[in-house]
C-alpha cells in the first residue's frame, strides 16, 4: 500500500502538525494548577472558542468517515441527526443555567446534587462503558481507516499511531490543550472539507447534475415509516431523543460550555456551536453523495462505503491540497479522540476515584486521570472487532444504533429532573438501571441475531431509531410511576436545580443572562433548520 501524499503534501501536513504541537506546548507552559484548570480549562474560556470546541469535538472521524460513507450508501436520511443544531440551542437555553447553578464539574455530579450519590455512581459507570463502545472504539477504528488510506500504512499502525500522538498532548495538557488545539483544528477541518465539496461538485457537473445522477431517493430525508433503515418517524422523533442526550446531558459536549465563566458566555458558545453544526450536511454528507455519483460515472471506485472520503481526497485533490485535507482529517481524528480522553479522565477521577478517596491531593488526582484515560483506550481497541456485528457494519449506523439504546433512560431522567421537582432519587436510579438492562439486552440480541427466532428476532430487528422511541416511552413511564409511588424529595436540598425550586434570585440571574442578539440568532437558526428539512424531500 502506497501513500497518496507527495513531497509538497508532506510539507503542508508537517506544518500543520508543528502548529498543533506549538499550541499544545504553549498550553503546557501555562501549567494546570488544579483539577478545575485541568478538566475545565480554569472556567475562563470565551464563546468563540467554546463554540469551535463543541463543533470540533462532535465532528470527529466518525463524521468524516462515517457520514460520508452513509451519504454514499443511503443518501440524505442521516441528515436528520446533523440538523440537531436546534438541540444545541436547548443546551444553552434550558439545561445550562441549571448546570451552572449546581457548580458541578461533571454530569454525574449534577445528578448527585439533583438526586443522590447512587445516581452519580450509576451514570459514571454507564458513561464510561458507553464511551468505550461508542466514541473511543469508533474514533480509533475510523482513524485507522483514514491514516492507512492516506499514508499507505497498515490499519492497526495508523490507529495506534494516532492514539499515541493525541494521548500525549491530552494527558500532558488537559482540557485547556484540548480546547485550544480544537479551535485550530476546526478551521483546518472546515477549509479542507469545503475544498473537497467544491471540487467534487465541479467534477460531477454541478448541483443539478449531481441530483440527476445520484437519483431523487438519495436526496430524500423523509423515507416511509415502513423503511427498514431510515423511517422518518424514527429519524425525527428517535433522533431527537438521542440528540438531547448527546448535546444536553453528555459530559463529552457539556464540559465545553462549563469552561465558560458565566451562563451568558456558555450560552453564546452553544449558539455559535449550533450554527457550525449545520455544516456537516454540506461538507461530509454531500461529498458522500458526490462519491456515489462519481462512481456511477466511472470516475472513481470504492469497496466499502466507509472508504469514500479518503478516496475522494485521493481522486480529486492536486498536490499540496492533499496535505491540507490530510491535516483536516487528522484534525478530526485527534479532536474527537482528545475530547473523549479528557471526558473519560474527568468522570473517572472526579466521580469515581475522588468519591472513594475524598482526601486525595490534587497532583495525585491528575495522575489518576491520566492513567484512567490509558485504560479506556485499551478497552476501546479491544471492542473494535465486535463493532461490525451491529448497525449493518456501516460505521455511522453502528454509532447511531448503539447511541439509540443508551440515550433514552438518561434523557428521561435529566429532562424530568429539571422540569418536575417531584422526581426523586428512587425514580432516577430505577429508570437508569432498567434502561441499561433493556439496552444491554438489545445490543446482545443484535450481536447474536443469526441464532435468534420468533419474538427475540423481532426484538433484535426493530429499527434502531424506533427502538429509541419505545425505550424513551418506557423510561418516562417507569420514572413517573416510581416517583408517584414514593415520597417526594427534600425540596430545600435541590434548590435551583429544578424549575419548581428556583428562587427569586435564580430567576433574576436567568433574566440578566438573556440578550436580544442571542434570541434573534436562535430564532434564525430554527428557521434555517426548517428550510433544510423542507428542501430535501427528493
UniProtKB/TrEMBL annotation:
<feature type="transmembrane region" description="Helical">
    <location>
        <begin position="153"/>
        <end position="172"/>
    </location>
</feature>
<feature type="transmembrane region" description="Helical">
    <location>
        <begin position="184"/>
        <end position="201"/>
    </location>
</feature>
<feature type="transmembrane region" description="Helical">
    <location>
        <begin position="230"/>
        <end position="248"/>
    </location>
</feature>
<feature type="transmembrane region" description="Helical">
    <location>
        <begin position="465"/>
        <end position="487"/>
    </location>
</feature>
<feature type="transmembrane region" description="Helical">
    <location>
        <begin position="398"/>
        <end position="420"/>
    </location>
</feature>
<feature type="transmembrane region" description="Helical">
    <location>
        <begin position="365"/>
        <end position="386"/>
    </location>
</feature>
<keyword id="KW-0472">Membrane</keyword>
<keyword id="KW-0812">Transmembrane</keyword>
<comment type="similarity">
    <text>Belongs to the sodium:solute symporter (SSF) (TC 2.A.21) family.</text>
</comment>
<dbReference type="InterPro" id="IPR001734">
    <property type="entry name" value="Na/solute_symporter"/>
</dbReference>
<feature type="transmembrane region" description="Helical">
    <location>
        <begin position="516"/>
        <end position="536"/>
    </location>
</feature>
<keyword id="KW-1133">Transmembrane helix</keyword>
<dbReference type="Pfam" id="PF00474">
    <property type="entry name" value="SSF"/>
</dbReference>
<feature type="transmembrane region" description="Helical">
    <location>
        <begin position="121"/>
        <end position="147"/>
    </location>
</feature>
<dbReference type="InterPro" id="IPR038377">
    <property type="entry name" value="Na/Glc_symporter_sf"/>
</dbReference>
<feature type="transmembrane region" description="Helical">
    <location>
        <begin position="269"/>
        <end position="295"/>
    </location>
</feature>
<protein>
    <submittedName>
        <fullName>Na+/glucose cotransporter</fullName>
    </submittedName>
</protein>
<dbReference type="GO" id="GO:0005412">
    <property type="term" value="F:D-glucose:sodium symporter activity"/>
</dbReference>
<feature type="transmembrane region" description="Helical">
    <location>
        <begin position="427"/>
        <end position="445"/>
    </location>
</feature>
<feature type="transmembrane region" description="Helical">
    <location>
        <begin position="81"/>
        <end position="100"/>
    </location>
</feature>
<feature type="transmembrane region" description="Helical">
    <location>
        <begin position="12"/>
        <end position="29"/>
    </location>
</feature>
<feature type="transmembrane region" description="Helical">
    <location>
        <begin position="41"/>
        <end position="61"/>
    </location>
</feature>
<feature type="transmembrane region" description="Helical">
    <location>
        <begin position="324"/>
        <end position="353"/>
    </location>
</feature>
<dbReference type="GO" id="GO:0005886">
    <property type="term" value="C:plasma membrane"/>
</dbReference>
